[in-house]
Specification:
Largest sheet: none
Distance between the termini: 39 Å
Number of helices: 3
Number of domains: 1
Shape: rod-shaped
Number of strands: 0
Structural class: mainly alpha
């Protein structure tokens, strides 16, 4: 025997499940984008601190980072922040 209401309910459940997964993926992308953006801005604004945390312990004579290191780190931080903005915007663009 054919029950149209049961088929309709199954379709509604499938669609609802699909949209829940899509919303979860969207929020993961936005949350990850915010974290990456914040990390990129930190790297951009504090390249000297990044040097102290990652490179200073490797050298006995260096007391401060080179100008090249500071500029390269700032560029990397800006690119990282840009990637975070793209991750935040991507779910809305692809919608």
């Amino acid at each position: 025997m054919y029950y149209p209401k049961a088929d309709y309910l199954e379709k509604v459940k499938a669609i609802t499940s699909y949209f829940r997964k899509e919303m979860a993926n969207m929020w993961w992308s936005i949350g990850g984008g915010i974290i990456i953006f914040a990390l990129g801005m930190f790297i951009f604004l504090k390249p000297g601190l990044i040097w102290k945390l990652t490179e200073k312990w490797k050298s006995y004579r260096a007391d401060e980072p080179s100008e090249f290191y500071l500029k390269a780190t700032k560029i990397g931080g800006a690119l990282f922040a840009l990637f975070g903005i793209i991750m935040i915007m991507l779910p809305f663009i692809l919608e």
